[in-house]
Write a structure and sequence with these properties.
The complex is a heterodimer of chains A (501) and B (515). Chain A is an alpha+beta fold. Chain A is built from 16 helices and 14 strands. Chain B has one domain: Amidase signature (AS) domain (Amidase signature (AS) enzymes, Alpha-Beta Complex). Classes of the chains: A alpha+beta (501), B alpha/beta (515).
Chain lengths: 501, 515
Amino acid sequence: MAKASLMDFDKALELFEPVLGFEVHVELNTKTKMFCGCANEFGQGANTNTCPTCLGLPGGLPQMNEKAIESSIRLGLALGCDIAEYSRFARKNYFYPDTAKNFQTSQYDEPIAFDGELTIELASGRQVTVQIERAHMEDDAGKLTHKGGATGRIQGADYSLVDYNRGGVPLVEIVTRMIEGGESDSPEIAKTYVAAVREIVKALGVSNARMEEGNVRCDANVSLRPRGSNILGTRTETKNVNSLRSVERAVRYEIQRQAALLSAGGTITQETRHWHEDTGTTSAGRPKSDADDYRYFPEPDLVPMAPSREWVEELRATLPEPPAARRKRLQSDWGFANLEFQDVVNSDLLDVVEATVAAGASAQSARKWWTGEIARLANVAGVPADTLVQPVQVAGLIELVEAGTLTDRLARQVLEGVIAGEGTPAEVVENRGLAVVSDDGPLIAAIDDALASQPDVLAKIKDGKVQAAGAVIGAVMKAMRGQADAARVRELVLERAGQAG
Amino acid sequence: MTDLIRLSANDLSGLLADRSISSVEATTAHLDHIDAVDGDVHAFLHVARDAALQTAADIDARRASGEPLGPLAGVPIAIKDVLATKDMPSTSGSKILEGWIPPYDATVVARLRAADLVPLGKTNMDEFAMGSSTEHSAYGPTRNPWDLERIPGGSGGGSAAAVSAFEAPLALGSDTGGSIRQPAAVTGSVGVKPTYGGVSRYGAIALASSLDQVGPVSRSVLDAAMLHDVIGGHDPLDSTSLTDAWPSMTQAARAGFEDGALKGVRVGVVKELNGSGFQPGVKQRFDETLALLEGAGAEIIEVSAPNFEYAVAAYYLILPAEASSNLARFDSVRFGIRVNPEDGPLTSERVMAATREAGFGPEVKRRIILGTYALSAGYYDAYYGSAQKVRTLIQRDFDAAFAQADVLVSPAAPTTAFKFGEKLDDPMAMYLNDITTIPANLAGVPGLGLPMGLAPEDGLPVGLQVMAPARADARLYTFGAAVEQLLESTWGHTMLSQAPVLAPNEMFASEEGVV
C-alpha cells in the first residue's frame, strides 16, 4: 500500500474547513442479549453464548430485552433527546458472514431517541455543543477472525472463523449531526466528544464503557470544505476507532490526508477507512455511497415500542448528575487546582477518589494516594487502579496516617498488605506489627543508644548545631525499623541534648 | 387395524383413555398404513417409525402406571416440515435444508410432546410454503388421495393428504395465505388458521412473519379444536404471541353440537368472495350450504368488503418482501447445504451465491426477487408502503363486516383440486387459488376450512371457509362444528368416508412378491 502524502495540519486548516460527524456505538451491559436469553459476556469460548435466535437458525425469533429499552431511554435522556412515543425496529438487509440473519435488527425512521445535544469543554476552555440527531437501538454482529492473509483482513485470507457470542449484544448507536466550525480544534473535539459519551454511559451504568473491549466504538466521519465554499466535501468514515487518543489521531490524519489529496487535484472517494493503531494511518475499506440500499422495512417479528410518558419520567428521575456538572462540583468541593483535578479525571479515578472522600478521607490525601502509590502499583500489575483496592480501605489507610499511627512509608507497606488480601489496613497493621511506636520509652532507649555511640554528635547539638541531630534520628529510625515518628524522635533528641523548644 | 386409522382423534382418545387400545396399536396401524399408501400419496418427507413406536410404548407404560395423561395422549400426529423438530430433519420442502436436523423443537412441537402426542413424521409442502399445490416441493409433489393425478393443495398438501388418506388423524400445518385452509378444501379435510398471535411461531421456519400462523389439520372440527388447545396460548419466545387467556376450543366445538347452535347466528356472505370465477360446483355447494344454514335458523346477510379486491396484489408484495429478508439466512455459513462455485475464487460471497443458486427452487427465487425489488429504495413507498395501506383498509373492511355479522363465510377455494402441471407455468393462476383465504391473513383474523360436499361435475371435495373476528377462534369452532354436524346429518355420512380407498403401494406389493 503506497503511503498517503499528508499536508501539514496548519496548512490544511488554512485551505480547508473540516466538517465532522460521529457514530458512536455503545454496547449495553445487560445480563442477556438484545433479542434472546443468551448471556451478554465478553471473553467466553467461541460460540458458547448462542441459541437458535442469535445464530439465525431457521425458525428462530427475537424477544425484546426490556432492560435494553430502559438503558436506551436513559441514555437518550442523558443526551438531552426526546424519547419517541412510538418506535419500531427495522431490518437492515445485507449479506455478511458475521451477521447471522443476514440482516441487522436496527432502527430506521423511528428511533427510540432523537434531537439531543451534548456540550463539551476543550482544554482551552472553549465550549462546543454537539447536536445529536438520534440514538437508536440495534444488535451487534459476531466477530470474524481472518486466517492466513498478511493483513488479517478478509481479502487474502485463506479462511475465516466466526464467533457469534457478540452477535445479538445490544447496542445503542448515537449519531451526531454535522459538526462545523471545529477548525483546528477538530481532532480534540473528536476525542472530547467520545470521552464525554463514554463518561455518560459509565455514569448511567448502562455500559462497561471499556473502549479496549469494544464497549464504546467510534466511527468518525471527516470531510473538508474549501475555504469560501458552501458545498460540503466528500466524506470518509473511519471505522471502529477504539481509543480516545486514536480518535483524535485518526481525525487529524484524515484532515491532513484529504487536504493533500484535494490540493493535488485529486478527489476523495466516499468510503469506509480502517484505522491502523501501529502506523497511525488509515487505509481504504469498502466504497460507501448514499445510494447503498439496505432495503429497510419494519421488523415484523417484533411489536412496536410505545414507552409510556410516566415510565420515561420515572427513568428521567434515575439519571445521575451530568458528568460535566459533577466534575465542576467536585473540583469546587475538593478545592483542587486544575492540574490536580485533570490528573484525577485523566487517570479515570474520579469515582474512587469521590468514594474515598465519602468514606471519610480528606480530598487531597485521597487524590495523593490514588494518583500516586496506588496508580504506581496498578501500573506495575497492569490492571486499572480502581480494581486494585477498595476506596473504603484507602480511606482507612489515610485515617491511620492522619492519626499518626502510620508514617507514609509504613502506610505504603500496609497498602501492599491490603492489596495482597491480608485484610483491612488496621488488620494489616496489627498482623504485620507495623504501627508507629508512640510510646516514648523505647524511643528514648534507642536515642540514648545512638547518642552513646556517637558522643561527638551530642556535643555538636549542645553547641547549637541542631542539624547534627539528623544523624541520630537516622540511626534511631533504623533501630526502630521505621516504626517511629521521625518528628517525635527529633523532639526527643533535642530534649536530651538540652535544646528543647 | 383399518378401523383404527379411520377413527377421529377424539374417538381414539376415548379408546386410549379406557385402555381398549394402546398407543402402540394406534401408532402401528398408522405407520403400517403409511407404508402401504404413502408411496403413492407422498404425504411424508420423513417417517419416524422407531421413534414413534418408542414414544407410544412409553406413553402406554405411563398410562398403565396410573399417571394422569392429557386428552390426546397416545394419539399419532403428522408434522409439517416447516416446523423445527430436534429428532427429525426439518427442510421446509427445500433442497437448501436437505438433511438438516435442528438443535431445538418449535414451541408447538414441544407442546405436542408435552401433551404426549406421538409424532409420526414430517409432511411434504411447497418449498418454504410458497405454493398452492405442493408441486414446488424440492422432494416431489404430494398426490391428492381423492385422485392421485391431482394436487392436494398447498403449501400444506402433505398434512392435508396425510389426514385425508388416513395416514394420521391429526397434523400440524402453517397458513400464510391459505396453506392450511385451501388444502383442506381440496382434500375434504378440516383446517384452521388461528388468530395471528394465537399460536406460537417460534421454530416455524418463517415465510412471511406478519402473515404466518401455525394451526391444526384434521378430519373433524372437534379434532381440530382439541389440537388447538394443545398448541395454542402465549409463548414468550414469540414477541407477536398474544397474552390472552383463551377459552377451551374443545368445549367451544362441543357447544356446536347442541340443538339450536345455529339459531340466530348472523352469517355474513362476503359479496366480493361470492362472485364470478368460482367453479360451478363450488358455487352450487356454497349456495346449498347457505340454504341449509338458513333452514337451521341462521340469518344470512350479505356484507361488502370492497378492498378485498386488492388483497392478492397487496399480499404478493408483503409476502415476498418479508420472505426475501427471512430467507437471507440460508447462506451455507451455519447450517444446511454448502455449494462451492464451479470456478473462480472461493470467497464467502461467492459460496453464498452458489449455495442459494443451487439450493432454492424457481418459485423461491421468483419471490425473493419480487420482494427484493419491492423493498428497494425508490420503490418501497409505491409497493411495500401501498400494500401496507391496503392491509389497513382490509382490516377496516373486516371490522365493518363483523359489526353486521357474527361470522363470515365463503368458499375456501375457487375450484376443486386441479391436475398436476395445470397451473405450474402460470404463477398468476396459481396465486389466485388463495383469493378467498388471503384476506384473513392480511387482517390477522382466524379462518376455518371444512368440507361442504362434492362438486357434481368432478366428484371432488369442495370446502367452506368460516372467518371470525380476531381472538374469536372459539366462535369458529362452535359454528364450524354445528355446520359440520348439519352437513353430515344431511348427507348421512362424513365427507372422508366417501374418499376412494387407496390401493396398497405397488412398490411394496411387488417387493412382497419378490420375497
